[in-house]
What we know:
Layout: E1 2-5, E2 10-14, E3 18-25, E4 30-38, H1 65-71, E5 89-93, E6 103-111, E7 129-138, E8 143-152, E9 157-166, E10 172-185, E11 189-195, E12 203-208, E13 212-218, E14 230-235, E15 245-251, E16 256-262, E17 267-273, E18 281-283, E19 288-299, H2 302-317, E20 331-333, H3 335-338, H4 344-356, E21 361-364, H5 392-402, E22 406-411, E23 415-416, H6 421-425, E24 445-446, H7 452-468, E25 473-476, H8 498-516, E26 521-524, H9 534-537, E27 542-544, H10 553-562, E28 570-571, E29 574-575, H11 588-596, E30 601-603, H12 611-633, E31 635-640, H13 642-645, E32 648-654, E33 660-667, E34 677-679, E35 689-694, E36 708-711, H14 712-717, E37 720-722, E38 730-738
Parallel strand pairs: 20-21, 20-30, 21-22, 22-25, 25-26, 26-27, 27-28, 29-30
Antiparallel strand pairs: 1-2, 2-3, 3-4, 5-10, 6-7, 7-8, 8-9, 9-19, 10-17, 10-18, 11-12, 11-14, 13-16, 14-15, 15-19, 16-17, 23-24, 31-32, 32-33, 33-38, 34-37, 35-36, 35-38
This protein binds alpha-D-galactopyranose.
Amino acid sequence: MITYNKEARTFKLDTPNTTYMIGLVDEEDFVGHIYYGRKLKENDAQYLLRTEEAPYVPSKNNRERCSFYDCFPFEYPSDGIGDYREGCINVRTASGHAGCMLTYVSHEIMEGKPALEGLPATFGAADECATLKLICEDKYVGMQVELLYTVFYDTDVITRSVRVTNTGAQHFFLTKVYSACIDMDNRNFDMVSMHGSWARERHIQRKTLGYGLQNVSSIRGVSSHQDHPFLALVDKSTTQEQGEVYAMNFVYSGNFRAQAEVSQFDYVRMSMGIHPENFCWKLDCGESFQAPEVVMVYTDKGFDGMTAAFHRLYRKHLIRGEYKDKKRPVLINNWEATYFDFDTEKLLSIAREAAKLGIEMFVLDDGWFGRRNGDNCALGDWQVNETKLKGGLKYLVDEINQLGMKFGIWFEPEMISADSDLYRAHPDWTIAIPGRPASEARQQFVLDLSRQEVVDCIYGQMASVLRSANVEYVKWDMNRHLCDLGSYGLADDRQGELFHRYVLALYQMQDRLTKDFPHLLLENCSSGGARFDPGMLYYSPQIWCSDDTDAIERLAIQEGTALLYPLSTIGAHVSDCPNHIVGRVTPFETRGIVALAGTFGYELDVTKIPQADRERIPAQVAMYHQYNDLVREGDYYRIASYSQNHEYDCWQVVSADQSQSLVTYVQVLSRANVKSRCIRLKGLAEDRYYKVETTSVEFVEEDSIEAKVYSGDTLMKAGLLISELRGDFRARLISLTGV
Length: 739
Ligand code: GLA
C-alpha cells in the first residue's frame, strides 16, 4: 500500500512486513529519505530527516546550504552541487557544465506497475502491486526525473527505477544515472557481495563496512563472472536465520556499480545502477532515458528471509514463458562429450544410447555451423555445416525426434570471428575504435549490436535455422567481454551510449526470439555464468550456471546463485570424471544429487562412460521426475555451508503446503571416528508428523534414520541425525513426507 500524507508531506510505502518512507522538505521541496525497515504503524518518523538540527534547511540558514546538502538524507542525490558523497545522477550541459539538483514537482500513485520501455523488469497486476511516481526537476538543466517505486503485496520487495527527460531548450549529456539509493544511519554494518571468476562464479563474501566508498562493479559489458549485481548491508549479528538485511539486485545484464559509502557523520549511502564509466547518453530536447530496475529487499529474518523474498518475486513477477512453471526435459549436451569433433553418426550414437536411458532432449552445442572445427572461426556464419552434419540439420533432428527425444541447439549470436564470411563482408560490424586494432578474446570480436542492420542479419540467420527443423530449445551463449569501445555506426557524440545500446539490442533480440518462437525453451549462458542476472531471467527461465560441472566446486557456486535465484533457474548437469575443469573424481551418484538442485541434465558421452554409471542414469532420471516439482516450486532453505564449515553442505526444499520436503546433504571429506551429525531442519509444519526416508542408499551401510516418523517441531528444534557416510564427496538425499 502507498499513502501520501498531505499535512506531513510524507509518502509511506508498505509491503506486508516493511515500510519505506519519503518526505518533502522545506519550501524548495527537497526529497528526503526518511526510513526503510520493519513495518511502521504510524506515519510519524519524519524527524529522522534531522532538519531541526544544524545546519538546518537552506530557507532557515542559507549561509550553510552546502553543509545541508552534504548531510541531508537525499532520496535520489545528485552530483556537483555541494553534497560531497557520491550522487546518483549527473549531466554535462551543452555549455560543458556538470552538476544538478532535483526537487519535487508532483506525484502519482497508481495500481499495478508500468512496463519499462525496452528493458526487462518485474511485473504485477493491479491487485498485486502499487506504484508511486515521484516527478522531480532541475529547472536550470531543463531536466525532469521520474522516480518510480513499486511495492508488492505478496512479498517484502520494493522495486525502483528512474526515467530522465530533457524538458529544456538545449541538448545535454547524461553522464551518470543510478537506479536506486538509500541514505541511512550506519549501524555497524557488514557488506555482503558475490565474487568469482570463470568456472568459479558467485562465491559469497562478507566483510566489515568501513568509512569511505566500497563498491562492486563490472565494466565488462556483462554482469560478469567476477562481480555480481548484488549488494547487501547486514547487521554484524545477522545470521542465516535472523537479523537485518538491506539488499539490492539489479535487473540488468551489462555494466553496473553497487556501492556503499560511509560518510563523516556515520551515515551510509547505498546505491546501485549502470556503471558511469564510458557512459554518456545524449538527450536531445524531448528525449528520455529509462534506467533499469533495482529490486530492494529489507528483512529482519536474516539471509533466509532475503532469499525467500527474491525467490518469490522472481518466480511470480519476473520469469515468463511456457516453461516458467513447467518441468524441463532432461537433456544431454554434447559439449564435454565431443567438443568440436563430431559428425551426424557420432551425435546419433550418443542420442540413441541416451534415449534408451530415459534422457529426453539432445542438445547440439558449438561447432555445427560454417567451418567451425575449433574456436577460431565462423562465428557470424549461422549456416549448417553439411560436411559435418551429413543430410543436414533436419535429418539429424528428425532422427532424434524418431527416438522420442526433443532437439536443442547452441548459438553465440553476439559474436563474430575474423575468419568468417560475415567479417569479410562487414569488417565494420565489430565493436572497435576506428583506426585502432581491436583486441581479440577467444579469437573473436564482439558484434556492434547498436546497429540495427547487424541485429536483423544475425536474428534472421538464427530464425531461419530454427524454422528449418523441429528445434525446441536454444542455448544462447556469449563468450567474451567488451573492450575497444567504438562503433562505426554511432555519431561521435553518441559513442558513450554503446555499452547500454548493446544491452538494449540484446534484450530486443531475445524479446523477438521469445515472441516469434513462444514454445522454445531458452537457456542463457555466458562462458558458464557470466550473465546470470535477473535481466536475462526475464527472457529465459534458466541460465547455465557455470562451466564448472564438478559436484564439489558446484556447492559454493550453486549456494551463491541460490542466495538470490530459484533452483528452477540454475542450469546444472552431470558430467564425466575426472572432471574436465578440475580433474576431480566424484561418485556418479553425488554428481546427480547436486545437479538435482537445478535444471538437471547430462554433459558427457553416454556411450563412453563406465557401464556402472550408465546403468545409474535411468534411476537418476526417475529421481528427477520424482522430485523436480518440489525442487522447482518449493521454498528453499540453506541449512549449512561447506564454504563456511569446510566439512559439509546441506540445503532443503519444502513444498508450499509443507507436506513434502527434500534435504540434500553432501559430505565433502570424510573423517575418522565421528558420530552422526545433527542438522536442524527448517520450514516444516510444527504440528505435523513426517516420514523421513533416505532415498539415496547406494553407499549407506547402516541407516539409522530410514523410514522413521518424527514431528516437524522436533526436526526443526532438535534436529535430524545423519549417520556417517564412508568416503569422500558423498551425498545423501532425505525425503520427508507428511503423514
Ligand atoms: C561456453 C559455454 C560452454 C560451451 C562452449 C562452446 O564456454 O559455457 O557450455 O557451450 O562455450 O564453445
